[in-house]
Amino acid sequence: MKRKFPLFLVFIFGILGIIPFLIPHPVVQNTDDFLRNNLLRILAAFALVLGLGSLLKVHMDKIKRKRQNWQYSWILIISFIISSIIGLFGGVAGTGPLPTSIGSFPFDIQTLYENIIVPLGSTMFALLAFFMASASYRAFRARSFEATLLLAASFIVMLGIIPFGDRISHHLPSLAQWIMNVPNVAGQRGILFGVALGTIATALKIILGIERAWLGGGE
Amino acid sequence: MIAIFLTALFGLAPPSNTTAYDTPNDGGGSITVEWQLSPDDAILEGYEIYRSEDGIDFKKVGFIGKNRRVYKDETEDGKKYFYKVAAVIDTARAYSEATGGVVSSAQWIDLNKINIFIALLIFGSIILYFIYHARRGKEFYLREIAGLKAVDDAVGRATEMGKPILYCLGLGYVEDIATIASLNILGEVAKKCAQYDTKLICPNADPIVYTVAREIVKESYTKVGRPDAFDPDSVYFLTRSQFAYAAGVDGIMMRERPATNFFVGWFYAESLILAETGAATGAIQIAGTDALAQLPFFVTACDYTLIGEELYAASAYISKEPLLLGAIKGEDWGKLIIGTVLLIASVIGLLTKLPVLSIFK
Known about the structure:
Chain B: Keywords: Membrane, Signal, Transmembrane, Transmembrane helix. The complex is a heterodimer of chains A (about 220) and B (about 350). With about 220 residues, chain A is an all-alpha fold.
């Protein structure tokens, strides 16, 4: 029963997921909308509580056992509590019962998000440029035939899309464009083709209960 | 200018053969109006569409530019509507005949998608045929996938070094097929971790994925007879924020120094941040995704990359379960058949005027 019930649910909801694709009737479409947008959101809300509980438990345990860098866990817990209080009682833009500004200094959840989370995210994103440089260096070392081919293709594409490439040869920009439009797109379409069919096969295996690894395996 | 003057003088020709019908293959609430262009179409501003509920009192419901002959009107199902179309130039109007009464209704089947449904049935039947043969004991050959062959070595290496294994499911939601495939692989990796007594770290970006992942790992430990070895804190929720997740996982990699990193699932721009940090720590890295834009990053920075469908085949490959292998074989045959049909249809479509390509619409 412990395994059969989830398999039964997956079968039912799997079929319910396919039907709205073929039946445009509002009865079916509205049911699908309810399942996806209402029921799933309710489930997500419960899962979020579980998730945050897990996060707090991991960090509390880290502090309790004084594991490596346990001091940082205090920052997480204190930030979590403060932002939860501000968010829950101060409202998203400071419209709640809790005052969320001292004089002209606002600290409502929207302000905190825009001034702390967004810049921190941007900082991480900016690191990508450096990671790209180091990854390119490794990828473009001509150690094998494939790597040499990659190096040559990238060299042509890089030269082809800058004005200097046109100065070297008028054919270079069109060659770069051809590499991007023909071999590149052909490869991508090949992968997409496999992905589409693989998706159908995986969905079928899961709906029919053949693929059960998501249950942790077993009969 | 002269044409407009002459038209104003001698009269504007109206659109003809106006017809209205319930829009096919929709969920109701729509009537399609069609007409033949006015002979004066070239000098028109466009066409006005008029609607009436009694066939007498018409009100304007829409306008469409010249050289267009179809208009889709939003309606209330079950009510009868009559339509007229007027050719418009400046203040002049030339009205067509009114159509008969039309009622819109919702359809139960979208006939435009029947071809997809048939293809799905054929493909599904092929898979079920091979699964049936697998169930009867037939063995199937599966080509080697380097990334999956390396899973055993990767877990073994972590065990020998006494270091943990990091498993990232990416930023996908639980309904994403890449996440589902990744959860399947996680189950098999967790079994190996349980067998070798290797620590598994699995930080998650989505609370639902976290809940499912935790249950999968727990079940895997139970399945190999090591329920006591399961650490409930090994699978945990990190954050939903993309770059906070990247920062969190980078921190784990730098502190815990895992011997093996798995990046399997749906990833965005954080893929290279994760993979490059992992490469810097000297870990063996196995990535798998069907996010085309991230594949080059993983191929560059990881030791093995599961590309697209290889990700979906992974669970069957690792578990070697005959039923799953049968499904993979069916998938391959399905691809061969669809590929052949595409090729033949393309050649016929290019060499003849037969409308073969329309079956793919």
